[in-house]
């Protein structure tokens, strides 16, 4: 049988190539997904961990904040080569006359470096410093010159240290993008400069382990030495960061995983469809073999062997192609954009090679099973009769009907349940929704044989009016409803997914925007240091005046849309039932009507009044343990103890993670105990200006005693990542549609072959070549349109359901129809259907009408 | 041969061939399917083309109908030389001036009898002449069957639908290729009777290829073909006359040395 199989394969090499292309595309699709998701994950991780440099371990403090002592203790742990904070420290750099705030990092170890040295070298002694070139330029100094460095708050002549510039720096991979370009000092000198204030660190510690240290043991030792800390490796830290970004769920991984699953399903259906066509075409040869003595088992074996050979070869080709394609994409991406670090090389994991091959093989073999069984079922004698056109009356099994109905009902039920439960718990709602969507869609696909033909018939009636070619085309497309259903189904899957994504993309963007709003509630914050050393009783008033001046000045900076003086304190006490426990929280106060101008995601602004503060539902949810959770109407004290002003809490729906208070309350707190409230100007950027430039402009404009942080830059980076991922997903799904088009071309050529005589008859009774071509073109477009229109409708429903579940708890989701995307999808599928008809039509047109008269 | 060449004085020729040759293949494998055929088919007549297998009768019909191209010589439908026409002109010719009846009916399975009958008009974008449609379907006894699909019709009924389809556009000539080949005797008689009626009562011209002498006897005239040449002509044929004519051809095949004295079966054979 081996020889016969190979002989058969050689004989039908043309058709095998067509099937092989579909398999190669299918497996290539899977492989590309896996490889690209590797690269994507890498890129997102690298982006998320840029400020962690190449640290082997990351230490997070769960309760307290780190001090310089903690860092020294960590550095002393066995197996630790170096330790550094991941957050830069503010320093003042300049000369006796003028200084500028410059964030500085204290490590000269390469593996912990968040910077690259563009010129010169990193500092090696406490007397050396590397600075951003812009800083050096603004003081008109260069490498080899001296510059003065002091702590970033409270300029103090006595604390001024002079250091020699040994190099210029630039942040690596947008690390510390929130702070701006950093200066670099040795660990000792950074500590010497910034420790004066017993300043505590907000960030994490980066640890570089020594070469032969066991990370597990080092982690243990670190935990033992530092007490209540968590120690994770960098990838885990990246995952944590991404997870915290996406509101506690690892949305990114989930999206990629779900997508790989979808890719598998699409590929499987298309391969199955194609191979069924292939084997159906050979039914007669197979039965002929039966006549000459082949056993059923031999035939089945031959078909399966052929499938295995084809599946394997095509899968390998698919993987090679996709690896090349992804690599090419990486090269292009790496060259055209630098906001997201893109890996230079694809990383091929074993699973990204083995999985697609296995999938290609298994799916091809599975799809061979049914046709192989059908072929062996044919009585040997039947093989000698002319090939009967496929029966029109074949009934699909009752089992299939029952299964698909059950799946649709169960899945639909789960979707509705998900919709309902999303209001109380988004996670459960999403879980139910995704599962329900997958199950009901599987049911719909399973049952496509039952419901798609009637739908197609209805659509066929619409085009019947157009002309004889369309009438013929729709009649032809509908004469074998099962095959048309199968072809349309393959297309339907692709289009449904693309449509769901495009409906969901808008919602996903909104969701991401929500979580970004939550993480980065403002674009730029300018902190004014309270260095008033005059009359204590005037401090609040004087500083407020200065703050207003600062806000005016900031507002005039090019690129700033709005700037607002803001008071901020970082803790509250209460309510009584918690024994007046102190809670850390951002409590901000500004002119109420200005809040929407500069702060993202704040709700219930109109309820803020003297004596009343407003928090969001998300703020309350974020408080732990649960007995500390605030309730509507609670009485709390602002500030660090019960002497602070007492206010009533109002809880409103929303996502904000800060407390909104009235200006008068924070001013009162400040006058009670100076230092508890900080002075800030919160500003919003104008459209798409570069946050880094704006920050520099603010520094240039203002007196020295400010620091500027701009989450906007970081936010823009995440925005880019999210948009890229969504674009990649939609793009890859479009590949599914293209694969499905091969199915349409296959179906068309098969029916053209079957209808050779019919086409010739039509030609004999007056069908012109052009009409024949038009007929096939319309047939192709009709099959495509059925899949596309039904797919778009389904995608709209699923997309809406999905966004309702995902967003329902935040806002009333706006159910929009993305007409532009839908039109594009329809256009592309129609064009592809047209294209798919070109080759079969060429063959059909070439057949002379004589063929109709010739008896076979 | 001379009789076959003589135009029937009573009728203008509806279809004619002049030195028509058709050669398949090249080099040693050359097969001369038609070898300088000259023949006229009169308007308003029912003519049968007969001959042994491989005599070229089907090829002659295909070339005359413009379904196949000639190697040399000309074929005419009325005044139109079909052998020089391009595909679009041929399509036009087939739409308006020629009808076909096939051995295996070749109805489109997804359309009803009525839709099948109207297909040529539909393709040409022409209006239906309802009176003509009613006459045709009534004559063919299809009035009750119009909404049936081909699969719901008997072989004879299917062939009658095919005949109606061939006649719906009132063509100058209908070509029928073994129209009774796939039918039982009774249905065959039905179909042949109708073909004859459509010539006599509806004034059509029909050219039929057949190898069945009984079928040929329904024609007004039989043209005999052998080795791609016209081998004889029988007017007002009877089955016996046709049979003996064919026998004469077969003898000729058996004794190829007697070329030059080709048997001539004249139309005077008694009916």
Your description of this structure?
The complex is a heterodimer of chains A (856) and B (271). The model of chain A is unreliable at 383-394 (pLDDT under 50). The relative contact order of chain A is 0.11. Chain A is elongated and about 110 Å long. Helices cover 56% and strands 14% of the residues of chain A. Chain A is of the alpha+beta class. Chain A is built from 25 helices and 20 strands. Chain A folds into 5 domains: 1-55 and 236-388, no CATH class; 56-235, no CATH class; 405-446; 450-521 and 713-856, no CATH class; 524-709, no CATH class. In chain A, strands 12, 13, 14, 15, 16, 17, 18, 19 and 20 form a 9-stranded mixed β-sheet that branches. In chain A, strand 3 (89-94) and strand 4 form a beta hairpin. Chain B is an alpha/beta fold and 271 residues long. Chain B has a single domain (2-258), classed as Rossmann fold. Helix content of chain B is 34%, strand content 23%. Chain B is built from 9 helices and 10 strands. In chain B, strands 6-7-8-3-9-10 form a 6-stranded mixed β-sheet, sandwiched between helices. In chain B, strand 7, helix 7 (185-200) and strand 8 (206-209) form a beta-alpha-beta unit. In chain B, helix 4 (113-124) runs parallel beside helix 6 and helix 6 (155-167) runs parallel beside helix 7 (185-200). Chains A and B meet through helix 15, helix 23 and helix 24 of A and helix 3 and helix 4 of B.
Number of helices of chain A: 25
Helix content of chain B: 25-40%
Number of domain units of chain B: 1
Largest beta-sheet details of chain B: 6 strands, mixed
Strand order across the largest sheet of chain B: 6-7-8-3-9-10
Query: Largest interface, with Cβ-Cβ < 8 Å?
Result: A-B, 28 and 31 residues
CATH superfamily of chain B: P-loop containing nucleotide triphosphate hydrolases
Relative strand content of chain B: 15-25%
Number of strands of chain A: 20
CATH class of chain B: Alpha Beta
The coarse overall form of chain A would be elongated
List the quaternary state of the chains: heterodimer
CATH architecture of chain B: 3-Layer(aba) Sandwich
Q: Give the N-terminus to C-terminus distance of chain A in angstroms.
A: 30 Å
At the fold tier of CATH, the topology name of chain B is Rossmann fold
What composes the largest sheet of chain A? 9 strands, mixed
* Arithmetic mean of pLDDT of chain A: 75
């Amino acid at each position: 049988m081996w020889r016969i199989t190979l002989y058969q394969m050689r004989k039908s090499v043309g058709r095998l190539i067509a099937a092989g292309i579909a398999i190669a595309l299918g497996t290539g699709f899977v492989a590309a997904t896996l490889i690209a998701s590797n690269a994507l994950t890498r890129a997102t991780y690298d982006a998320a961990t840029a400020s962690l440099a190449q640290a082997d371990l990351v230490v997070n403090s769960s309760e307290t904040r780190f001090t310089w002592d903690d860092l020294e203790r960590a550095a002393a742990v066995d197996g630790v080569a170096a330790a550094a904070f991941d957050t830069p420290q503010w320093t003042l750099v300049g000369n006796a006359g003028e200084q500028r705030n410059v964030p500085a990092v204290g490590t000269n170890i390469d593996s912990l470096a968040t910077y690259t040295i563009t010129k010169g070298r990193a500092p090696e002694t406490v007397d050396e410093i590397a600075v951003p070139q812009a800083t050096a330029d603004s003081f008109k100094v260069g490498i080899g010159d001296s510059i003065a460095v002091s702590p970033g708050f409270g300029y103090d002549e006595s604390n001024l240290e002079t250091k020699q510039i040994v190099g210029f720096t630039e942040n690596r991979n947008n690390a510390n993008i929130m702070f701006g370009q950093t200066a670099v000092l040795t660990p000792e000198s950074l500590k010497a400069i910034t420790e004066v204030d017993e300043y505590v660190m907000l960030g994490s510690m980066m640890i570089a382990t020594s070469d032969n240290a066991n990370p597990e043991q080092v982690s243990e030792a670190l935990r033992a030495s530092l007490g209540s800390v968590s120690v994770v490796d960098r990838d885990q830290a990246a995952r944590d960061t991404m997870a915290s970004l996406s509101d506690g769920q690892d949305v990114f991984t989930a999206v990629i995983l779900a997508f790989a699953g979808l890719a598998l399903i699409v590929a499987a259906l298309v391969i199955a469809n194609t191979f069924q066509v292939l084997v159906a075409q050979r039914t007669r040869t197979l039965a002929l073999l039966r006549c000459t003595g082949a056993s059923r088992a031999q035939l089945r074996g031959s078909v399966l062997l052929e499938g295995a050979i084809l599946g394997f070869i095509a899968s390998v080709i698919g993987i090679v192609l996709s690896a090349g394609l992804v690599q090419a994409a990486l090269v292009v991406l790496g060259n055209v954009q630098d906001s997201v670090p893109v890996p230079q090389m694809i990383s091929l994991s074993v699973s990204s090679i083995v999985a697609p091959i296995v999938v290609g093989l298994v799916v091809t073999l599975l799809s061979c099973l049914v046709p192989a069984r059908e072929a062996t079922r044919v009585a040997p004698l039947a093989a000698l009769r002319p090939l009967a056109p496929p029966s029109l009356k074949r009934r699909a099994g009752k089992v299939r009907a029952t299964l698909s109905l059950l799946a649709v009902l169960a899945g639909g039920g789960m979707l509705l349940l998900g919709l309902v439960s999303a209001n109380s718990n988004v996670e459960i709602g999403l879980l139910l929704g995704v599962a329900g969507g997958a199950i009901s869609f599987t049911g719909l696909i399973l049952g496509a044989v039952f419901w798609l033909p009637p739908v197609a018939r209805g659509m066929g009636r619409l085009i019947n009016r157009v002309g004889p070619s369309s009438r013929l085309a729709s009649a032809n497309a509908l004469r074998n409803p099962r095959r048309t259903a199968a072809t349309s189904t393959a297309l339907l899957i692709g289009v449904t997914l693309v449509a769901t994504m495009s409906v969901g993309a808008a919602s996903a963007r909104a969701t991401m925007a929500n979580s970004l709003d939550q993480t980065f509630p403002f674009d730029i914050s300018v902190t004014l240091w309270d260095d008033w050393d005059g009359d204590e009783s005037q401090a609040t008033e004087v500083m407020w005046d200065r703050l207003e001046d600062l806000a005016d000045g900031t507002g005039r900076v090019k690129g700033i849309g709005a700037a607002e003086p803001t008071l901020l304190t970082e803790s509250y006490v209460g309510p009584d039932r918690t024994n007046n426990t102190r809670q850390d929280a951002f409590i901000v106060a500004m002119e109420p009507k200005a809040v929407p101008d500069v702060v993202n995601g704040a709700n219930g602004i109109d309820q803020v009044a003297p004596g009343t503060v407003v928090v969001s539902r998300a703020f309350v949810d974020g408080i732990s343990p649960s007995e500390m959770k605030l309730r509507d109407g609670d009485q709390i004290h602002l500030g660090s103890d019960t002497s602070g002003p007492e206010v009533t809490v109002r809880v409103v729906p929303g996502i904000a993670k800060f407390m909104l208070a009235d200006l008068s309350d924070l001013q009162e707190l400040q006058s009670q105990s100076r230092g508890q409230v900080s002075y800030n100007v919160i500003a919003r950027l104008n459209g798409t200006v570069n946050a880094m430039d704006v920050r520099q402009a603010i520094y240039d404009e203002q007196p020295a005693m400010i620091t500027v942080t701009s989450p906007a830059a970081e936010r823009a980076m995440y925005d880019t990542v999210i948009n890229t991922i969504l674009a990649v997903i939609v793009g890859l799904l479009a590949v599914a549609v293209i694969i499905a088009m091969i199915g349409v071309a296959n179906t068309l050529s098969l029916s053209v072959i079957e209808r050779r005589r019919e086409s010739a008859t039509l030609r004999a009774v007056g069908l012109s070549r052009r009409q024949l071509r038009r007929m096939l073109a319309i047939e192709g477009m009709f099959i495509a349109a059925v899949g596309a229109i039904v797919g778009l409708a389904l995608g709209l429903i699923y997309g809406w359901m999905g966004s309702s579940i995902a967003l329902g708890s935040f806002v009333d989701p706006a159910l929009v129809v993305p007409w532009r995307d839908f039109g594009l999808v329809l256009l592309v599928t129609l064009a592809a259907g047209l294209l798919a008809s070109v080759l079969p039509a060429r063959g059909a047109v070439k057949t002379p009408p004589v063929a109709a008269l010739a008896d076979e | 041969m001379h009789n076959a060449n003589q135009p029937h004085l009573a009728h203008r020729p509806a279809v004619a061939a002049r030195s028509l040759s058709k050669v398949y293949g090249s080099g040693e494998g050359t097969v001369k399917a038609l070898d300088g055929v000259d023949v006229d088919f009169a308007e308003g007549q029912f003519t049968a083309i007969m001959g042994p297998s491989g005599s070229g009768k089907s090829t002659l019909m295909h070339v005359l109908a413009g379904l196949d191209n000639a190697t040399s010589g000309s074929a005419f439908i009325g005044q139109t030389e079909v052998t020089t026409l391009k595909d679009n002109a041929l399509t036009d010719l087939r739409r308006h001036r020629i009808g076909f009846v096939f051995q295996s009916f070749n109805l489109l399975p997804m359309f009803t009898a009525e839709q099948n009958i109207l297909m040529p008009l539909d393709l040409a974008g022409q209006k239906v002449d309802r009176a003509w449609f009613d006459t045709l379907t009534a004559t063919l006894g299809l009035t009750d069957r119009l909404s049936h699909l081909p699969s719901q019709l008997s072989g004879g009924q299917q062939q009658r639908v095919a005949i109606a389809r061939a006649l719906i556009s009132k063509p100058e000539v209908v070509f029928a290729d073994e129209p009774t080949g796939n039918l039982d005797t009774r249905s065959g008689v039905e179909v042949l009777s109708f073909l004859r009626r459509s010539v006599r009562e509806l004034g059509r011209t029909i050219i039929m290829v057949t190898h069945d002498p009984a079928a040929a006897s329904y024609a007004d005239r039989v043209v005999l073909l052998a080795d791609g040449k016209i081998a004889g002509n029988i007017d007002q044929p009877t089955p016996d006359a046709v049979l003996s004519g064919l026998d004469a051809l077969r003898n000729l095949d058996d004794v190829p040395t007697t070329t030059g004295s080709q048997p001539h079966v004249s139309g005077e054979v008694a009916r």
